[in-house]
Amino acid sequence: MRLATFNVENMFERPSIMNLSSWEKGKPVLEDFSRLNDLIQKPIYSQTDKQEMLDIMKRKRNAGLLELSQESKYMWLRVIRGKFIKRPKNAPKEIVANGRNDWIGWFELKTEDIKEVAIENTGRVIREVDADVFCVVEVDDRIALKRFNDSVIPKIKGKKYNHVMLIDGNDDRGIDLGIMTREWFEIESIVSHVDDPDEKDEDERIFSRDCPEYTIKTPAGNRLLVLINHFKSKGYGNPKVSNSKRMRQAERVKQIYSDRLKQGFEFIAIVGDLNDTPGSPPMQPLLGNELGLTDIMTHVKFVGDGRVGTYGDGYANNKIDYILMSPKLANKIIAGGIERRGVWGGKKGKLFPHFDEIKSAKDAASDHAALWVDLDL
User: Fold this and answer.
1) Is the pLDDT of residue 370 over 90?
2) Tens digit of pLDDT for each residue in 15-32?
3) pTM to 2 decimals?
4) Which one of 111, 132, 148 terminates a domain?
C-alpha cells in the first residue's frame, strides 16, 4: 500500500492575503487579524484593549474597517448582534462593547477563487502519487474535498477515491486536515483532538487545526493508525511564542502516540506539515531518540531528487513536511519518494522541473511537495 501527505494550500478558495507573491507581504495583515480575534474573545475589554483594537483598525493596510462598510481590502468585520463600535461624524470612533457578551461577531479574512489551472495541478500531484491513503493539509472543508475528488481528479484522468473524510478544526481561515482512501482501505474509526486544552492556558486549544486519528484497515487485515497534523506556523507572530506552541503540540502528539502504543497499536504514522526543521528544539519530542520514529526522507529506501527541503525552493531550511513511522511500521517500508512537480520551480524550471501546465507561480498546485511511502502492510 502507499501512504502520502500533501499540503494542498486550499483547493478552491483561499484567503486573499495568503495568496500574495510572498508570505512576508501578507504577514502584517495576518498578525493584525490574529490579534484582533484574540482581543475580541476577552470577557472584559479594558481601555487598553479597546485602544489597541482601534489602533489596528486604523492602520493603512486595514483601511475601511472603521467605516460603515466594515471592510478592508483583505478583512471583514462581521457584527451579527449587539453593538461593537460607534462611529460619530464629528468625534473619534470608539469601541462601545465592554466584553464578549455584549455582541456577536468576528473578524474574517476575505477569500478569492484559486485559478482553475492551479486546481488541476493539485489534481495532477494526487494523480501522479496515486496513494491508497492520501492525507491532505490545508483543505477548505469536507464539501470542497469531496467536490475536488468527484470533479477535478477525474477531469485530469486521475482515479477517484472511495472514502473522503475531514473534521473541521480550530483554524477560522478554512485550512483543515483531511484524508482520502481507496475502496479496500476502510476508515474504521476517527478520533478528534480539536478540543484538547493547551497546558499553558486551558482556555486555549493545543492544536492550531487538529490532530485527527484515523484507523485504516488494510486488505491484508492490518490496522494502520494515521495522525495528521499541521503545527503552528513560523510565518507570523512572535517567534518565541510560536516555537513554544509547536513544542507543546509536539509533546501532545508524543503523548497520543505513546498512549496508542500501550493500547496495542503497532503501525502508527504521524504525517503532515509540522512547520519546522528536523534539528529544531520544537521537533525533538518527536524526532529525539526516545520514540524511535523514522522519517521517510532519512530512510535508505527513500529516493529523493537531490533536495532535502519539502517547501518552496527545497533547501534544507524548508524541510517542514513529514511522514514519521513507528518502529514496526518502518520495518514494513518498501520504498519512499517525493513529488515536487506541483511546485513552481522558477522560470524554465531553473530550480527543479515542474509540470508543463505551470507557467507561473500562480499556476502551482502548492508551495509544498508531496511525500509518499510504500508499505508491505
Assistant:
1) yes
2) 788 777 677 788 899 889
3) 0.85
4) 111
